[in-house]
Design a protein that fits this description.
Radius of gyration: 30 Å
Strand content: 15-25%
Distance between the termini: 55 Å
Number of helices: 24
Strand order of the largest sheet: 8-17-18-16-10-9
Shape: globular
Helix content: 40-55%
Length: 723
């Protein structure tokens, strides 16, 4: 983590020194975050290898067969190492290759700027170029003009000589990288610990690897050229060896797992060995993880597999576990018709990318950012009676020990200890624990380099978290966890909490058609297609009701009669400073302050109703003007002007256009699982007709006056394909 922090500071210095601007500077920083994420993901996976190897040996000794799933193979890093060492297939290797180190090295070598950026080129019109190139023989041809402009552009884009200072800085960074104790590539390390290629069936897409034979490591081609044409043929042979019980351990990657069956198939020679499926590396996509889990759980199997989704206790890896948990929770709701059927025990603990998770992260971010002004805000997010506080205490203790070695944090620690304990004595027994929570959480969050507008982005938060020191990572993640628990507890008390399913928001729902497409002959369970029309809008009367309710959360100064009539007034109606390009009218909205959130507002618009997106006070101040008709002191004329403006937007949006109130929704409900392959195939075949939201097979809930429907949302214009 220290090396990456140093690299980030050096990168900022290099961008400034080379005068990279705009998109070029943004691209360099984006590549940095991507390289950092890949590095720590690889290191976290490698850290789990010793544990997986021991558990796999125990399972085999107990008569089971083991399947280990991962996503990446590290072959690209291996090829880079071989190229740098001028090694060839068959040459001796010094040992197993650290793919994480290789990917970090590639980023520094290829994307660390050391040459001055070219000066911006002013475009010259063709008419001017023709005038420049015109001679006594006449004007130039179009081809001549194009060649001249291309040559001018190439000359302008030619970078200058490397800056010696930055070259030396880059070389020092690479030298420090070589000194880091980076673990070897997880795939090669795991195979080596389990006895080598003769014992393990490898089904991946790579062609090269490092393997140990007769006590020596060598670079070798994975497939045998005398028998196989490529890795696909090798994978088929390896699969047969595993299914026949000749090899009791198999490793599959994302590239080679599609269409492969590794279940305990009835009639196969290895049917007596129950499968133990271990996910060494969680997928970037939850769907990919679900697909890989399906390799060992299929029809016509002698025994069902045992699944183990392996994750470290580092907060950063929760980003991947959260995605898988959300997907499993959704599938559980479909297969059992129950939102609690998340296949398991407590996958909800991992499902953090939820409305409650986003709210909790915003609370954490605000508290950490407000620490200098009001340290009490950190303690306000924690439920003092929460069971998670023991884990938070342990994380605080770890962070405290790390902080005392740093003079900057020690100063903050000493400054706020007496004050914070005096204000929040109920949180912890010792004053130093409470103050350390405030000081360390503020410091740790600051290192994530997150813009305020990204404060609710759970996935980005967990990605950045991976690169923080372990003590800070555990502290910040545990703080986020207890804040999340406090938000969930409040939502349950208010009756608004629900896990695993998203509720479709609408002011009214009309059922246009219901078609039964399938009835199971044994159970009698039916599959139905619903065609619905949703009205998302909010009338002026409905918006006023929400405003009256929202004013219960008013802050001192809201609606102050002495304030300027059109200044920011907290809860109220607001007119945008920008105009709708289609209607040529300014946007209008109603904002109410969110409970227990001083600077966050819930938004309602006439065409879309209550929005899931929230706005901060500073956004409203900079982009909107308060409408006087919504103030308690408004005149009758001002109130009527507001009513007309809102009603005009409400009534003119009664359509299905983009931004309109009406939205058609297709829902496949009932006995959905048998139709799942058909749904997936339809999406694959007709995805060019769908937007990104329609391409995702998501389980949702629609509440009707007489019933609640749980099903998979599906675009209405392709429902006929399923009939």
């Amino acid at each position: 983590a220290a090396w990456w922090r140093g690299l980030r500071r050096a990168l900022d210095r290099a961008i400034t020194r080379t005068q990279l601007r705009g998109a070029a500077a943004g691209t360099a920083r984006q590549r940095f975050w991507g390289a950092q994420l890949r590095f720590f993901r690889e290191v976290q996976t490698a850290a789990k290898v010793p544990y997986v190897a021991e558990r796999a040996k125990e399972a085999v000794a107990a008569g089971k067969s083991v399947v280990v799933g991962l996503q990446s193979t590290g072959e690209a890093g291996l090829r880079d190492v071989m190229a740098e060492a001028h090694a060839k297939v068959g040459d001796a290797a010094p040992g197993l290759v650290a793919a994480a180190r290789s990917s970090a090295r590639a980023f520094v070598q290829q994307h660390f700027p050391v040459q001055p950026a070219p000066e911006p080129l002013e475009e010259i019109d063709d008419a001017v170029v023709r005038k420049i190139l015109t001679t006594d023989r006449g004007p130039p041809s179009a081809e001549h003009v194009a060649r001249w402009k291309a040559a001018r552009r190439a000359a302008a884009e030619k970078q200058g000589e490397p800056i010696p200072e930055l070259v030396a800085l880059r070389d020092a960074i690479l030298q420090r990288l070589d000194d880091l104790p980076v673990p070897p590539s997880p795939l090669d390390d795991l195979i080596d610990r389990l006895g080598g290629p003769d014992t393990v069936a490898e089904m991946t897409g790579r062609g090269l690897r490092v393997a140990r034979k007769n006590g020596r490591y060598r670079y070798e081609q994975r497939f045998d050229a005398s028998r196989d044409q490529d890795s696909t043929t090798t994978n088929l042979r390896e699969r047969a060896a595993f299914q026949d019980g000749k090899k009791r351990i198999a490793i599959i990657s994302d590239a080679a797992s599609t269409g492969v069956s590794l279940h305990a198939a009835i009639g196969s020679k290895g049917a007596q060995h129950r499968r133990v499926h271990v996910t060494l590396e969680l997928a970037w996509s939850a769907d990919k993880c679900i697909q890989q889990l399906g390799r060992t759980h299929r029809s016509h199997q002698a025994t069902a597999p045992v699944y183990a989704l392996l994750a470290t206790d580092l907060g950063g890896e929760a980003r991947f576990a959260a995605a898988v948990a959300k997907r499993l929770a959704s599938l559980g709701a479909l297969t059992k018709g129950d939102r609690r059927a998340a296949s398991g025990q407590d996958l909800g603990d991992f499902d953090l990318d939820t409305p409650q998770g986003r709210d909790a992260l915003k609370n954490v971010a605000r508290a950490c950012r407000d620490y200098g002004r009001d340290p009490r805000s950190v303690a306000a997010n924690v439920d003092p009676d929460g069971a998670e506080n023991d884990a938070l205490r342990a994380a605080v203790a770890m962070a405290r020990d790390a902080a005392r070695a740093r003079s900057t944090r020690r100063a903050a620690y000493d400054a706020f200890a007496p004050y914070l304990y005096e204000e929040a004595p109920q949180l912890y027994n010792a004053s130093d624990e409470t103050s350390m929570l405030a000081a360390a959480a503020h410091h740790a969050y600051d290192t994530l380099d997150l813009e305020p507008k990204k404060d609710g982005d759970v996935r980005l938060f967990l990605n950045r978290l991976q690169a923080t020191p372990v003590a800070d990572q555990k502290l910040l993640f545990q703080y986020f966890s207890v804040a999340h628990a406090a938000v969930v507890k409040a939502a349950k008390a208010a009756g608004s909490y629900d896990a695993g399913l998203a509720s479709v928001r609408a002011s009214s729902v009309v059922v246009n058609a219901v078609t039964t497409v399938d009835v199971d002959a044994v159970s009698g369970a039916s599959t139905k297609l619903y065609e619905l029309t949703l009205d998302r809008g909010a009338s002026f009367d409905a918006a006023q009701d929400q405003l009256r309710t929202g004013r219960a959360n008013a802050r001192p100064g809201d609606n102050d009669p002495d304030a300027t009539r059109r200044s920011f007034r907290g809860a109220g109606f607001y007119i945008s400073n920008h105009t709708n390009t289609r209607t040529k009218r300014p946007y209008i909205m109603m904002a109410v302050r969110k409970a227990n959130a001083a600077q966050t507002f819930l938004i309602t618009r006439p065409n879309t109703g209550a929005n899931a997106t929230e706005l901060f006070a500073h956004d409203i101040i900079s982009k909107y003007t308060c409408h006087a008709g919504g103030l308690p002191s408004a005149s009758d004329e001002e109130r009527e002007q507001l009513r007309k403006a809102w009603t005009l937007e409400y009534e003119s949006s009664h359509n299905q256009d983009n931004g309109g109130r009406l939205k058609r929704l297709g829902l496949v409900a009932g006995n959905v699982l048998p139709l799942w392959p058909a749904l997936a195939q339809t999406v694959a075949e007709r995805q060019v007709e769908m937007n990104k939201e329609d391409q995702r097979l998501r389980a949702v809930r629609v509440v009707l006056p007489s019933e609640t429907i749980v099903g998979v949302r599906f675009p209405t214009h392709v429902l006929n394909t399923l009939r």
